[in-house]
Design goal:
Blueprint (H helix, E strand, L loop, with lengths): L16 H5 L2 H20 L55 E2 L2 E2 L14 H12 L6 H18 L3 H14 L7 H22 L8 H14 L2 H16 L6 E6 L8 H9 L7 E7 L3 H18 L3 E6 L19 E7 L10 H11 L3 E7 L7 H20 L7 H19 L15 H7 L2 E4 L3 H12 L7 E6 L2 E6 L2 E11 L6
Parallel strand pairs: 3-4, 3-6, 4-5, 6-7
Antiparallel strand pairs: 1-2, 7-11, 8-11, 9-10, 10-11
Length: about 500
C-alpha cells in the first residue's frame, strides 16, 4: 500500500535531521514541565483518598496513554469544581470527570464547594517545579510569570495582568532560541488581546486568509499532522462508499485549498467498477478563494477523466438555514468532512452545526479533532492550550532550527493565530454559545453511530509517519474506534468516522 499523495520536503530542513534531533532533549523540557505543573495543580489540596479512586491514577509514574487536560476549572483558585483526570484506556470518548468517593464533578455549573485551589498554593507549585534539577531556569521563570498572569486575568485583575504582560513582552521574543520563550511570547500576545478585549468588550482582528493558507502548506510539508487528517479521512470515505455508488457528493465544511481531495479523486478514477460522478460542495469565508480551489480541483479531475462538479458556499455551516444551499440531490451518496482547527470560527454555533448534520443524514462523517478545550472558563482554555501548544512547539522545534523561515511562518501565521483565537477572540463578549468540548461524544448522543477506523486507515497513517524520522517522537495509537496522532505520548489530533442512524440512500 502506498500513501495517497506525494510527500515532498523542499527546503524544509530534513537534511538537518541529525543535528535537529540533538536539540530534542532540551526542547521536550517545555511540554514535560507544563504537564508536570498541570498534574500538580489538578491534584493539589484535594482530600486524601485511595489512589484507586482516580480513573487515571495520579500517583507515581503516569502510564504512556493519551490524556485530555480539558476542564480544569478548579485550577488556580477558580471557584467551580470542574476538573478532569487523565483518561484511562477503558474510558469512553468525551468523558470528562474526576471521580472521588463515588461523586462525579461534571463540567456543568455546580455550587461552589470543595476542590478549590488557592492562588498561593498554585504559585507554590509553580515555583517548586521551576526549581527542579536540570530545568531551563530562564524559560521556566517566564512560564511561571505567564501562569501568574493567567491567574490575574481569571480574577479580573486586569491592571496587574497588564503590568505582567508588559514585563513579559520585554523578556520573551517569538524569535527566541528556546521553545519556552517563543511559547511565552505568543501566549503573552494573545493574553494582551484578551485584556484589551475585556476593557473594550470586543476583539475581532482581520484574518489574512491567503497568509494562513500559505502557512498551512508549509506546515503540511514539515509535519505529519495535516497528512494524517487527509489520509485517514480519505480512507474512511472510500470504505463508506459502496461499489454500486455511482453518484457521490462530498461536503467539506472548511475546504481551504482542498489539498486532500486530489488523492481521493485518483483512487475513485481508477475504481474497478468505473469512476463515479463526483460533486463537491466546499464551504469557506472567501468566494474568491473558493472559486480558485474549485478551479484547481476541476482541472485535476478533468485530467483524470472524472466527472466532477464543484459548488462554492461562502457561509459557515452553522449559519445555513436553507439546506438547499448545499445542493444535496436525491440518488447521491453523501459524505461530510470536517477537519477542525482553531485558526478562526469556521462553522459558527456548534448546536446549529449539529442540527445541520442531523438534517443531512450523511452516509459518513469524517471528523478530525484537536485535543484541546475550546469551551469553558478562561483558565480551562489557558491550561489546555498551554499544554497543547507547548507540545506542538516542541515538535516543530525538534525538526526545524530556530532561524528557519518556514518554522517562523508556521508559528506566527498558524500556531499564534490559534492561541489567540482560543484565549482572546470573543472573550467576555462571546455570543454565549457553548462550545462542545468533544464532538465525538456529542455525535453519539445525537443520532450518529461510530464507524471504527480500519486497519487500512492505520496503515495509511503509519506510512506517513515512516516518512518522518522516528527519533522525532511522533506516536500513533488505534483505540476506541479512533486513530490518535501525538507527540511524546500527548494526543494532538484524533480522527474518527460516523454514520447517521437515519441515513437514506439517495
Amino acid at each position: 500500500m502506498q500513501p495517497q499523495e506525494q510527500l515532498s520536503y523542499p527546503g524544509n530542513g530534513f537534511s538537518e535531521v541529525s543535528s535537529s534531533c540533538k536539540n530534542l532533549e532540551r526542547n521536550e523540557q517545555l511540554s514535560q514541565w507544563v504537564e508536570n505543573v498541570t498534574k500538580q495543580l489538578m491534584t493539589e489540596d484535594l482530600p486524601e483518598s485511595n489512589e484507586n479512586d482516580f480513573p487515571g491514577n495520579f500517583q507515581g509514574v503516569m502510564p504512556p496513554v493519551y490524556e485530555e487536560v480539558g476542564t480544569v476549572a478548579a485550577l488556580l483558585g477558580e471557584l467551580r469544581p470542574r476538573k478532569v483526570a487523565r483518561k484511562s484506556s477503558n474510558e469512553s470518548p468525551g468523558s470528562v470527570f474526576l471521580q472521588h468517593n463515588h461523586h462525579q464533578y461534571y463540567s456543568d455549573d455546580q455550587d461552589d464547594q470543595t476542590c478549590n485551589l488557592s492562588v498561593e498554593s498554585s504559585k507554590r507549585i509553580i515555583s517548586s517545579s521551576a526549581k527542579s534539577p536540570g530545568a531551563d531556569e530562564p524559560g521556566l521563570n517566564l512560564l511561571t510569570l505567564l501562569l501568574e498572569c493567567a491567574v490575574a486575568i481569571s480574577q479580573d485583575n486586569l491592571g496587574e495582568a497588564h503590568r505582567m504582560l508588559l514585563e513579559l513582552s520585554q523578556m520573551a521574543s517569538p524569535y527566541g532560541a528556546s521553545c519556552a520563550e517563543r511559547v511565552v511570547a505568543y501566549f503573552a500576545k494573545a493574553m494582551l488581546s484578551r485584556v484589551i478585549n475585556s476593557w473594550i468588550g470586543v476583539c475581532s482582528p482581520l484574518i489574512d486568509i491567503k497568509a494562513v493558507h500559505a502557512a498551512f502548506q508549509v506546515y503540511n510539508n514539515v509535519s505529519p499532522f495535516i497528512k494524517f487528517a487527509h489520509f485517514t479521512s480519505n480512507q474512511a470515505i472510500l470504505e463508506a462508499f459502496h461499489r454500486h455508488d455511482h453518484r457521490i457528493h462530498i461536503i467539506d465544511l472548511d475546504i481551504m485549498q482542498g489539498l486532500q481531495w486530489p488523492a481521493l479523486f485518483h483512487i475513485l478514477a481508477t475504481r474497478a467498477e468505473g469512476p463515479p460522478h463526483v460533486r463537491m460542495t466546499g464551504l469557506g469565508s472567501s468566494m474568491e478563494l473558493l472559486a480558485e480551489t474549485g478551479k484547481q480541483l476541476s482541472n485535476f479531475a478533468r485530467r483524470l477523466g472524472l466527472c466532477f462538479e464543484f459548488h462554492p458556499v461562502d457561509k459557515k455551516c452553522g449559519d445555513i438555514v436553507d439546506i438547499s444551499l448545499l445542493h444535496v440531490r436525491t440518488g447521491e451518496t453523501l459524505a461530510v468532512h470536517w477537519m477542525q482547527h482553531s485558526l478562526y470560527d469556521a462553522t459558527g454555533p456548534d448546536w446549529k452545526t449539529m442540527r445541520l448534520l442531523q438534517g443531512l443524514s450523511p452516509r459518513v462523517i469524517t471528523l478530525v479533532e484537536q485535543e484541546i478545550a475550546h469551551g469553558g472558563s478562561f483558565l480551562d482554555r489557558f491550561v489546555s492550550s498551554l499544554h497543547y501548544y507547548s507540545t506542538l512547539f516542541d515538535s516543530v522545534g525538534a525538526f526545524l532550527p530556530g532561524d528557519d523561515p518556514g518554522r517562523h511562518r508556521v508559528e506566527h501565521c498558524l500556531l499564534q493565530r490559534e492561541i489567540t483565537n482560543v484565549l482572546a477572540i470573543g472573550g467576555p463578549a462571546r455570543s454565549g454559545e457553548d462550545k462542545l468540548r468533544h464532538w465525538r461524544s456529542q455525535l453519539s448522543r445525537n443520532g450518529f453511530v461510530q464507524l471504527p477506523m480500519s486497519t487500512n486507515s492505520m496503515a495509511q497513517a503509519q506510512l506517513i509517519l515512516n516518512m518522518f524520522p522516528p527519533a522525532n517522537g511522533y506516536s500513533l495509537v488505534q483505540g476506541d474506534g479512533t486513530l490518535r496522532l501525538g507527540w511524546k505520548d500527548t494526543s494532538l489530533y484524533t480522527a474518527s468516522a460516523w454514520t447517521s442512524l437515519q441515513t437514506s440512500f439517495r
